[in-house]
Specification:
The protein is α+β, with helices and mostly antiparallel strands and about 800 residues long. About 30% of the residues lie in helices and about 20% in strands. Strand 6 and strand 7 form a beta hairpin.
Amino acid sequence: MDIAECRGLGNRRRCRLIATAATLTLGTTAAWAHGAGGGTVELRRTTDGIPHIRAADWRGLGFGQGYAQAQDALCTLAEAFVTFGGRRSYHFGAEGRPTAPSTFGRPTNLESDFFFQAFADAKAVEAFRRAQPPALVALAEGYAEGFNRYLRGRPAARPGPGTAACHGADWVQAIHAEDVYRRMIAASLAGGYARFIPEIVNARPAGLPPSVAEDARTLQSRLAATVGDRHGIGSNMLAFGAQATGQQEGVLFGNPHWYWGGPDRFYQAHLRIPGRIDVAGVGFLGIPLVMIGFNAQVAWSHTVSAARRFGLFELALDPADPTRYLVDGVSEPMQARPLTVVTRAKDGSIALERRTLYTTRFGPLIDLGRWGKSFGWGTRRALAMRDVNADNRRLFRNFLRWNQARSLDEFVAVQKEEAAMPWVNTAAIGRGDGRVWYADIGAIPAVPDALRQACATELSDVLARLDPGTPLLDGSRAACDWAEEPGAAQPGAMAASSLPSLLREDYVANMNDSYWLSNPKQPLVGYPAILGGEREPLTLRGREGHRIAALLAAAGERSAVALASRLKQEVLSARAYSADQFKQTLLAQACVSSEGTDVAADRVGQTGRLAQACRVLHAWSNHATPRDRGALLWDAFWTELQKIPPTVLYSVPFSPEAPLTTPREPTGADPRVRAALAAAIDQLAAKGWPLDARLGEHRFVRVAGRRLPLYGGCEGGYFTSLCNPDGGEAVGRDAVGNSYLQVVHFGREGVEAYTLLAHGQRETALEGRAGAAPIARYARKAWLRFPFREEEITRDPGMKRWLLRQ
């Protein structure tokens, strides 16, 4: 019996005994193995509630992870499993939407249900399960058992301060291993099909009325977001080698800019089977593995890749039937798949919604007609979509192998062999190894530029002007399907040998720009356009990341320890690269009156507000820390400036020969610059914010009844990221930004890791309830020395221990 079950049965004396035992430690692995049976799982929690799970086998390890995640995020997980099972319309109504954003956006419940019924059905789940090694199957089965064990042990009494918000809800249900597989499938599809759920499930043959309302977003912006639909999704990663550390050791910084709430939120844990696996880091909720993290020999991180993981095909429809299409002059039928979703109205009445999903040899039909009739399903043509990850069942097998990797060479070999990363770049370091690794090696469509050119249509040219990355090929010719490359991990994908990678001893970096400048001294060139483009402008955050990397790589540090120490400070400095580079030039023009005088000197005239804004920005430190005055004004100003075309805003345009310093020298004399500053002033006035307001007064998280000021920004080249929807003040589960942060290196004793989890472990933390300690730690920039080795865990001042019986 574990402590949660004990409380549920109301046995107070027994509970006190278990609670007392939970504070004891076991010391060595041998002592634990001697004192625990094969069906026992040890769950220890250290400072900030981080779970350390130790088991004798894979099933037990999954059990512990499922139990721990349910303790911390029961409601989020329960809703997620309903989503991936295609049952949202029954529990939450057909027209509702998910509680929080995620990689699959926020489609209506009905749209979501049709999608997951189609792409995560029993057939897809079984194919996925068959592709997994026995260890991963055992992990999934154990995870479901652990989740269910916690569910059964919850208190049956009325909900109180310590119970979940979803207490008693009918949608909080037991799960099976199949639900874990569906969750894994959903993660794999995040860079393709899952980005276009409404456009796929609402696609109808020509002549039927459209079922999707017009959307204000443009097709260009829709395609540009490589994962999800939230502004700010991305990541930073820097890896430094021997030339930077002065020894045969590397230092890794990983920092996904990710969801603060919802099913794709990161969960931190330490997983161990003595002699088989010992790994720590984070994974998505519902995943029993580490996706970003470290073990005793390697450390790695990811950023969202600029490569497209899907492609479009223009179909020539049969004039006699819009559900048939021509390939090499021969008509063939689309596969019509009927789907049925059970819905429940507010009055409890049950109804069935039916829809037909149409699929071709290239993939499902997708109707993009809301952005232009030529992209819709007409009488002459339609579009089909192919997602390379629909056939990629290797992702979590790859993570399982990385979790156990014993060297950087082994890590690299696994990535090349599996080619499984679905939509991310990778950086890694290894113990006793002065090299650092970067790669965009994963599942990427085999669409060489020659194939794209040979198979282009008129519509291809139109799309290329909107998004040069997404290929649109002629589906009326069989020869225009994706190429078959020798050595590829799956049909239609690029071989690992054809994809970009680097091994260096100074540094590698990626901030969501393409592979091209992962190190400016060794540009990666000659790759197809589908990989994201070469010789193109970097984001300002990318330029700031390279500034930090170059600064630290040239600092002459004599140890990985010293470099890691500086790195922890630099990555949280919250500098606005745009202000560092352009503020003085912009203000020199925007802050000058028509008579040529400095308006900052005018304190009472018609230019009074402009003068005050100029004084605030001149005095501002160019940082976004809680005490800074001017960051809020600059952010609004910079957002307005982005409405000016770069060719107009900058007098020195982008040059591929100087990618880290161009474009530059903004033309502050343009009247639109002053208009942008005026608009920024009006924005703050409309919110009731003083022009010189401190950042922390309007960018905070509510914790235990008080406001906890935060730092960082969304626009303007902030390496320290925090994007709040609609520019609101209180940061909550809808935010995107710094999520999990790690600085890792290796020393004499093994791995040395420092971590932060900005949004906390528990789903209640951002609601002002329990679990706010990690958020408070992030707010004060107090990196946690991660307790990885046994002696570190046992002496952790916050350590508590439970033994769970399977």
